Every structure is written in structure tokens, then in C-alpha cells.
Amino acid sequence: MQAVSKKVLDRARELMRDGTVSRVAGWKAGEFFYDCEPALFETEESLKDLVYNRFCAANLSKFLITNDIASVADRGRTLVLLKPCDTYSFNQLLTEHRLSRDNVYILGVGCEGMCDVDRIRALGIKGITGVDESEDGKKLTVRTLYGDGEIDVDGVLVNKCETCKGKAHKIFDELISDNEEEGPRGDRFECVRELESMAPAERFAFWQKELSKCIRCNACRNACPACSCRKCVFDNNASGIASKANTDSFEEKLFHIIRAFHVAGRCTDCGECSRVCPQGIPLHLFNRKYIKDINEFYGEFAAGEEAGQRGPLISFEAGDREPNSVSDKGGD
Amino acid sequence: MAVNGSVKKIRMSDLDRFFSALSLTQKVYLPVEKAGQYDYAPWEPGVSYDPEELHTVKSAKGLFFPQSEDLIKYRREGLSLAIGPVAPEDEEFVVFGVRACDVKGFEVLDRVFLTDPVDTYYKARRDHGTVISVMCPKPEETCFCGTFGIEAEAPGGDVQCFITGEDMLMEALTEKGEALLESVSGVGNTNGDGALLPAADETDLKAAEEVKEAHREIMKKLPLAGLTTEGFGKDADLLTLFDRPEWKELSATCLGCGTCTFVCPTCQCYDIREYDTGRDIRRFRVWDSCMYSDFTMMAHGSPRPEQFQRFRQRFMHKLKYYPDNYEGAFSCVGCGRCLKKCPSSLNIAKVMKKLGGADND
């Protein structure tokens, strides 16, 4: 990781210096070693704070549209650092015409899996002040206010990285990576099968427990690259459903299920929803369920695999499944 | 801590019995794990207190100022419409395990809700709630309560507790606290060899002092121990702070979600909405977030159309407007929840370092 990291930082500086790009969308060193924040670097001097390490999980694709930086041509080109999984989101945003390709220069950055400080904390480690990665990238030495210890990187990966879709970038102008060949890791639908195998009452209880933790902060929606609407229906006071809170348990479920349906067929499984949820709700399970169903109904499809795809839910073929086959699948 | 009989002790292993005894007359809320996250929930048999867990995800403010609460109910019956206010809460309850920062958070809310015009719903819950604080175990790197003058070793509330190994010392600080401990004085311990809450002796008090001293040493080593409020507060120049160009850069990647405001123990803004089921309408109030695009929306539109303005509002409120309104008191207690939870890793510590006194860098 360190080797790639150094190259990435050097190359970003070069591209800024030679005028290829006017700004860099990357990650900035945070208050601690683990809270690298998405950031825009407008000057070469400011790039001293640019970092690329194990704690740069945030998907920068969404930030390109949040700030409209990639839709305004007269602001010059923006260099964006994209990890393999982030490129799916970028393609999807291109497909939805939310980005202008010409305004962005993509530096594909190799990734060996991102770490989640909350998972380090979940091991009972408190007061974390630093980490050192072993040469082979398999171990982390964690420094804390209460002493040091060693942990396995594999045990503290961000949820989405545990079942990585593969190390190949789907879109880029330039690449700095040494593991493009690696394919998917693990079976990302195993967790869906577990849910499917539950009895309806058990599954309901599972979701009830998880979704009742929701505080309707909208972090999942706001971080989601597939939630690309300029104004969300839940923010529209005239819609009758913009009530800001879980006024009852029905609404709690409604919000997440509507959102999951809305992004079905467009969700690239980037995992941002679960990563940002302050309450640790495994929201990606909804999306994976729909991805799995779509694969089974219409054949394998990966949103964001390439720009301009027409997904199965927005195209029609005479042999398409009838809606009742969907309800049959849901059990009773 | 004085030996006047007001300090009791209880075996950690007897805590369940303590909760059980209190639960006979009132609900006892404590940090409870649910699907991997700690939040306040009522004690029930089978729930036990985890002394290692530093913070609940949400603060305890929701017990006094719930995320949503009904104010008025309307119901249509044929041609008539019944309209009724919802009575404020009048049941006694206990909140156990609150940390020093969150106890101070209640004081921040008190200044807003208990000064004229008094918020009757909030006041009812404050009047009926008894706060039992517990000195935090290992503070996290994200903690900075000291910045706001909070003494973690004196967590406060109606009763404050200190864990000394196998025992927990309970010190009543108010009459309400005294009465609460008194109410279980007749209960025996699990072993059946004495009272559940015997008086603490000299040795116990000495042990508590040692625990506090060790805690003070750790507080000094926290990464944010040097963070100061210099440059903010009552004496800072409002417009100079408001017009600082850094606000744009600080907020550049704010997603406009409400995470920081909803996990915050001191954010107190709310909206009033109606929920129409077709037959019933409930008018309720609900936590609002200054990060939202429709916050304080008026007929002419939003007074803060851009995200950087909303971001600025939140920190100006905590560090300047609130101190101006309440004799210099800040409305941040340094609990560090926003440091842990912001999806973009933006937070008040970064703001204070960027805009505050030179010592913060």
C-alpha cells in the first residue's frame, strides 16, 4: 500500500503542476490517522495534506456531484482519485448524465482493502492513536493511549472490502495499481442467502431490530452515489412524506425500503450506505438482495460496469419475468 | 468526597439487583446493546450494564427531549373533529450510566428549555427523571470535555458513581438522588449477607480517589487535551468569525446529512410537523438539523441556501451565538461523537483548530 500511496501523491502533484488538472478531489489527512476526509485541493501547495492509505474508504464519486465540480466546464478539469469499486459509481453517474466526462481526469488508484476503525474498536481496543502496517500488508500494529497491540488487517476491513468485487478499474485515464488482476473476494451474496433462508417472522424480527435503530439522519442517502436526485422526495415538504423522523415503525421501514427500490438496478454495491450509517445498520443487505434478484431474473448485471449501459429495470424484452414471479420469490 | 453517610457502595455483580429493585416503581434506562450499537433502553431482566462501553451512539438527551413527540392529536368522527393536547410525561424514571459530558449536555438544554418561555414537555421529563452518572472508563482519543471545563472525575447529576474494581461507589448529590438511594435501602444483596447499598468506608473512598487520580493522568495525555476555546465565545467578534473565508473550505465535503446534530448531546433545534393517517392527524415535534436544506425554511425560501452557510450555522451556534445568549457558556461538551460519526470526518475539533487561537495547531 505504501508504494502505491507514494506514487499516487507524486502523480497528483505533477498533474496539477503541468496544468492537466485545476484541482484534485482526494482525501485529506484528518485529526487522527483514521479519519481521512474527502477534500478538494485547489492549489499545489494544499496538496501537502493529500493522503492515500488504508483509511481512505470514502467513495469520491458522489462528491463530484455534491459540489457540482464536474458539471461546470469553465472551472477546469478535476483530478479524482478512484479506487476500483469507486469507478462503478463514476460510470453510473456518467450513465445518468450527472457528470461530464471531459471535466474529470481519473487517476485509478490500486487498493488492497480499506480498514474500518470501528471494527478495530469492536475488538475492544480503546484510545487509538496510530497504526503501522507490516511490510506484507497483513498486520497492523495499533498504538493506543493504553498500550500497543497487533491485529490482522483481514479482521478489520470495511464491510464492502470483505467481499471485494475485484481490483480492476472500470474507467480511468491513468492507473497506479499493482493488483489489477485480482478478482472478486468471497461471496457477496452469502449474507443475502442467509436472510432468504430465514422464516418470514425471523427475517421481519431481524429487520425490525436493525431498522429501529435508524435516526433518519439521511447519511446513507446523502453519501449514496445512486441517490443522485437533485431534490429528494423526502426533502420535499409538499410530498406529504417529508416528516424527518420515525413517526412510527411503519415509516422507519418505509424510508429504507423505498430508497432501496429506488436505487435498485443502479446501485453498484459500493457500500457507502453501511459505511456511513452512525447506527451500524447493514443497509447494503437490501441492495444486495435486489442485485441478486435482478441477476436471477434477468441475467448477470453489474451497474457501473461500463458507462451508458441500459440496465434490465429500464429496458424491456418480451420474455421478461412477470411481476408475480417476483412475489413468489419473496416467500409468504 | 466526604464521609457523611451519603456515599454508598454496591458490588458490581449486584447492579442487576439494584436495577431490578428500582424497576418496581419506575423505568430505569441504561446503555443497552442492540444489534451491535449501544443506546439507552429500559432495563429488563437479562439486560446487564457494560461498564466498558464509553458512549452510547446517541446521547441521553432523547430521554428528556425525544427525537419525536406528539403535541396535539386530532381525530375525525363523522362530522366532528376531536382535538386534544397530549399531556406531558408524568412518570418517574431513572437514567443510569450517563457520562460527565452528557450530564453537562443536559445543562446546555436546560438553559434553552427551562428559561422563559419554559418548555412544559421538557420540564416534565426533567422533573420526573433522576440522573445517575458513572465516571467514564478509558476515555477515547476523540474525547475533549476538558476543553469546555468539564471535570470527567466529577460527572455530576443526581447521583455520581465511581467504579473501584469489584465495587461501585454511589454518591448522592441532590435530594432527588438521596431519595432514590434511600428507596432501595431496605433491599439486601444477592449473597444475602448484608444490604445492597451499605455505606462506603474510608478504604472505599481512598480507592475512589486513586481511580480518579489515574483518570486525570490519562485525560492529560488525550490527543485533544490542548484544544482551547480561544477565539470563540462571548468576547469573540461575531462578524469577524462569521466572515472567515475558511468556512467554505471547512465545509467543502459536507454531505448535508444530520448525523452530527442527531448524535449530539446539545443540539436542540426542532421542527413541528403533522402526520396525517386519513382519520387521525398527529402534530408532533421532531429533531431538526441545521444541516438540512429545509431548515428554517420560510415563505421566501431558505435563509441559508448553500451548505457552507448551514455548516457555519451549526458551529457559530455552538461557539458564538449560544455563548452570547447564555453568559458565555458553550454548547459543546466535547463528547466526541461527531468526531466518530461524520461520514466525511468533519467536526468541531477541526473547526476550532482552523479558526481558533494559534495554540490549537
How would you characterize this protein structure?
- The complex is a heterodimer of chains A (332) and B (361).
- Chain A is of the alpha/beta class and 332 residues long.
- Chain A folds into three domains: 2-114 and 164-176, no CATH class; 118-150, no CATH class; 190-329, no CATH class.
- Chain A is 33% helix and 14% strand.
- In chain A, strands 1, 2, 3, 4, 5 and 9 form a six-stranded mixed β-sheet that branches. In chain A, strands 6-7-8 form a three-stranded antiparallel β-sheet, with no helix packed on it.
- In chain A, strand 7 and strand 8 form a beta hairpin.
- Chain B is α/β, with parallel strands linked by helices and 361 residues long.
- Chain B has two domains: 7-221, no CATH class; 238-360, no CATH class.
- Chain B has eleven helices and eleven strands.
- Chain B has helices at 15-23, 100-113, 120-128, 175-182, 202-221, 238-242, 246-251, 259-263, 307-325, 337-341, 348-355, and strands at 7-11, 27-34, 37-42, 68-77, 80-85, 93-98, 129-134, 159-164, 167-172, 270-276, 280-287.
- In chain B, the strands form two sheets. Chain B has a seven-stranded mixed β-sheet with strand order 1-9-8-7-6-2-3. Chain B has a four-stranded antiparallel β-sheet with strand order 5-4-11-10, with no helix packed on it.
- At the A-B interface, strand 2, helix 2, helix 8 and helix 10 of A face helix 8, strand 10, strand 11, helix 10 and helix 11 of B.
Features:
heterodimer; A: 332 residues; alpha/beta; six-stranded mixed β-sheet; three-stranded antiparallel β-sheet; 12 helices; 9 strands; 14% strand; globular; B: 361 residues; 2 domains; seven-stranded mixed β-sheet; four-stranded antiparallel β-sheet; 11 helices
